[in-house]
Write the structure tokens for this entry.
Amino acid sequence: MRMRRTQSIYFCCLMVMITSYHLFSQDFILQGWYWDYPGTLDGYSWADTLENRAADLANAGFTYVWLPPLSRSSFGSGSNGYDPQDLYDLGEYGGGPTRFGTRVEVNSVITAFSNHGIKAIADVIYNHRDGGFPENNPSVAGWVKNYTWQKAQNGDNPYPSDRFRLLLPIGGSSGRGSGTYYIKIKSASEHAKFFGKPYKIYAWTNKVGWQGLPDGAESEPNAGGGCGEPNNPITLGRNFLANIDGLGCKIDEYALMLGTDDYYSGGDNLYIVIANRDGDYSDHHPYEIWYNGSNIAGALAFQTYTDFSQLPSGLGAMNYLNFKPNGSPTQLAGDWDWPWFFYDYDQYVASTRNTLFEWTRWLWNDVSIRGLRMDAVKHFTFEFVGDLLDDLHDNGIDPGIVVGEYYDNGAATLKNWVNSVKSKMDEDTKIAIQPRVFDFALRQALKDACDSYGYDVRNVFQSGMCDAAGAIGHEVVTFAGNHDFRDSGQYIVNDPILAYAYLLSNNQIGLPCIFYKDYINGGLKREIDALMAAHRTHIYGATQRDYLSRFSTPYPTSYQSGYPNTTLFFQIRNTPSGRDVLSAINYAGEPLNMLHGLNMTGLNVNDVFIDVLKRSSTPASFVDQSGKMEIKLSARDYSLWVKGVQLECRIFLEGAYDVALHQMRTDLKNAGIIPLTSPYASDVRRVNDIPADVVDWILLELCTNPNGQAIASRCAFLRSDGRIVDLNGTTTAIAFNAPVGDYYLVVRHRNHLSIMSAGTKSLKSHFAENYDFTSDISQYYGQDAKLLESSPVSRFGLYAGDADGNDQVQNNDKNDYWKVQVGTFGYLEADFNLNAQVQNDDNNDFWNKNVGKGSQVP
């Protein structure tokens, strides 16, 4: 069916700054990737993927896109980037692309974002680094060798056994070569908590590497000759599995025999790794190595991969002194000092701080990064973050987004991180840069609301940093999903859109971050776009909220279906437009039909609220005498209602008017061919059935001046007596999504000429003004209308004959429509008399008489 041409609706977003910070609450972040996004090893460029979406993302309202870690990774192009190696290599310097793309592609996507008003957020890792060249590390050697029972008892941790290797020079001038090496391994502290922990020993030389053999295994007892026990033979290039011995001598001895074919005689190294097998680290070490009757353990070098001075970029140099342990006091324990991931930065070392500060400035100046998502902030000091932000500000750099990932569900803990960072910032920096943190606490409550049967969703109202810990929205980034929630039980499985409905309709709890996998892969784009548009238009800048359906609510309620413990209903107040917004989310598996009291401050009885998302079965609801409003939603659904205005209107259509009856015929309804979906693009709505006594669909528009665009549109039904009614077929008060004010009223029909009121009408929210186009020609703008009858009283209506909907009756209405459709039955453009048939009288009685007429609507 041809859609009727309608005017577009334009809304103005109020750009009101509510704090001194750069960021406005109408900003939205897209996490522009997910854990298993297709990367360059898969034959894709994710940078190109995002670049191609730049315009669409901007049109949707995104102002920031969070990119994956950009730096070269130790695990190569298949890595997501949380193992940063060469900080300055973004896919250049001869190493090929990163998983995200090449440096050229990085530049291109950021430029495309900038051209569309989007800023790029870098995922920056200030906690750790990986993939340097091996270097001797006397600090690690000292830690491993001097780890005592008392240290273990005091809570000091052993150094992770998978992050160092042992090196023993052989061949050449070393005095060591062919023969048997007896390697004695035991717990350094002999603390009982380490006994029985599994490990593997693996040895190789520059000449003999991995042999592809099945793992071998120790055979107890194997403490060696010093304990009167045998040892276990091992070979190069093969794993041998064992457990820390806690019995007898508490020693495992291995005999490694080297022949002349196992190493380069001119000079080689014997490499040994003795690593735990399950991440549960123990304090084992080779306290003795015997060769030719001598203990040569003193010749062992402990090496870590922490030499970052020879990377392709030539920038960001570091060595083992930049990582823990390095001689400074530490227990290698707790959130800050334990090396949770790879090699743990010591942010108190001046060169560490300076290198990371300089790199961050480079991201801003050379890469055009404009926001920072800081990984794993739980694991380094507040002082480092505060000093970093001071350094940026002192260098003229004020990122619009600085958000930390502090993986913890405690709202007070998250709030404390923000407070602690601020306490380390200079006063001028605090004015310019606002640190935030992801609200894991609120996210957990929203997951429970979606996925946990029996969970009382009202807990959401008292969860999260703002509502449980007193944070302000500018300290928070809210989210429903991210790349870390990918294992079973972590992701929001059931209707994650319900979580987004809460985050995107409550502007005072933080800045929303949308997850790409939900938005694109999960098919939520259309709904999220609509929520974002409603937020920008109606919610942005509001300063008050009232959780109406909270525990022990003071407001009267009654439920015909649905339940208090499955309903979130809240009121956004003190909006810049003065129009309150209501948000309802139904988590129940059955429809919600409730009457619920509102906060009546600033409201009146009979005020009308419009469902701006068009998800409810009722387009509008009215405040009753007791301050309650009806809310209807389908199972597991949501919507937003905005305070609007209302009016009553009456018109006649020339084609359907019956002079003998002094009213219009309902032939289309009687024939059962009126479509269930409205034919007007500016307000598409669907009903389950067409009410009784309906002539056809009609479209109403409000304009602030005769030549202006419509600011609001409403489709409705036209009854036989000329009354325009809502979709239920009875309500004569038609509600509009518009503020209180003076408006011109435009009425449109699909094959009649549009009309406009002669002047403005002052519309209110709590009372429906009436405008009757049928009674006098002076009611029409331009004072031109069809005189339908003059006795007993004059009746006026809309001219018929405009088949193509261009507001003129012309030859093409006859040639392109009537001649094509004559003799056919249906809901047709050339059926000017609306009797479900295109016949000669449509041409003779209407088109012939009205040809040359045009609408008076400017």
